[in-house]
Amino acid sequence: MRFQQAVAARRRRAWRGPALVLGLALCAFVADGCFLAGTSESTTTDGDGESGPPPGPSSGSALYVRLGGVDGIRAVVDEMVSRIAADRRIQRFFVDTDFRRFKSQLVVQLCELSGGPCRYRGRSMTAVHRGRRIRPAQFEAMLEDARDALKVAQVGERERHELLSILRGLKPEIVEPPPGEPDR
User: Fold this and answer.
1) Does the residue 184 lie in any domain?
2) Count of structural domains, the chain
3) Of 9, 26, 129, 133, which one has the fewest beta carbons inside 10 Å?
4) pTM for this one?
5) Is residue 50 a contact partner of residue 30, using CB atoms and an 8 Å limit?
């Protein structure tokens, strides 16, 4: 319940100040007119831009809804990316990362993976991580950062477990086997 209250408070704060006009203009531009056209279709990302689903938990699964929809996922991603960027065990993998784009892609991907209306159309996890030499210990460090972010965002235990299981399922696509071992 605290998590949902935090999400609701975040939504209220998001509408304050002059940033609203700029934010709405950016959303309209990025969403390829979906916002202005008033469509209720789910929004997707093609790997180049930032986008997300329409507001509200339209056709999402229970996990997507329990996470607080796209706003709840965005809150988790904000915290998670801050932790990853500060984590000395893995920060070297993110030296040249455009964090704004990374966050937007991660929000869309987690929205889809949790059963929300988003459709991730970026590069595959295998393609994105190929050649980075990510090892199991570094993947586990990312999972720790994700777990801690979920706790800080006051996500319930059941939802934390489900989302971490989803992330753990991406391990074969992200972790590169050490030299001498067969490829994924």
Assistant:
1) no
2) 1
3) 9
4) 0.65
5) yes
